[in-house]
Amino acid sequence: MTPLQLAFYVVMVLNILWFSMAFHYFSLKAQSAARMLVSKPQRESPLFDTVVYSVRFLGGMNFAFAFLSLLLLLNTGGFTAMQQAWLAFALAVAHASQFCFNVPLALGRGGMPESDQPGLAGPMRMIFVVDGTLMLANAVLGLWLFVG
Length: 148
Hints:
Blueprint: H1 3-28, H2 30-37, H3 47-74, H4 81-109, H5 122-147
């Protein structure tokens, strides 16, 4: 196994694990995920149920990315290196969408608006660190596949 193949397998397995955990949390434990985003006094609002349903949509998107990563892992011969590179870039963008848009929000407001969770503490910090790391890992993998 070449270093590039090993890197590809490691990054895809990490994608599968991370996106699957996000699917589980946001789709199957949507009530808990919504409580992380909405402060206690606001949870009595009828809009809280809207947040619960909205995070399920986020879970569904994560399931699709986990499935794409699994397809890439199980069918490496079915994709050319160029196709793998473009799909790695797409996965980097998926992680970037969680990292690049949410970190400034957390830094600017000290957390999600009206949330009990401080900005870059608790579970949000772990989410930002993992998404940021996987964003870079997928981008580097894409570049490596592209030029390799």
